[in-house]
User: Fold Lipoprotein from Enhygromyxa salina.
Amino acid sequence: MSARRPMIVAAAAALLAGSAGCINDDLYLYETELHGTVSAPMSLAPELELHVEVHHASFGTGPTAHPLGLVETFVVELDGDGSFARTVLVPTELGEGLVVYAWLDLDGDGVLCGLDGDGEPEPAGLVELDAFPAHEISFALTLDASCVGPELLFP
Assistant:
């Protein structure tokens, strides 16, 4: 029996070493400076927060690929002319293309058209950035849909 013990220990060590080899995969990021100009049906007051999501247009590979893989979310206060800028680090190995979705928080609750909202519907919009990959992308985003998430706006 003692002759089998070194084989079992060696097999366990090989299994552990083989499974640990996949833990430290490299992550490749592409730095993109986004310059957006937002327009909406109402005036854009500077105190309103714009909730922005950056997505891969297509996320995953093969049969598990699906649209809209989230890359980053952030909140910005718009400049007086409805513009904003943000540097985003996009993982290159996880998806393709780039989409920007945003909605304007009219009631200040941080929830898109929450049930307790008593104001008007919050406008949302989406734009696919055909210029990606590029280190600097300027785009115009029109918030012309009410109370919809990115899944309903992207094909």
About this structure: Residues 29-153 form a domain with the Immunoglobulin-like fold (CATH 2.60.40.1120). The chain is about 15% helix and 45% strand. The chain has a mean pLDDT of 86. The chain has one domain: 29-153.
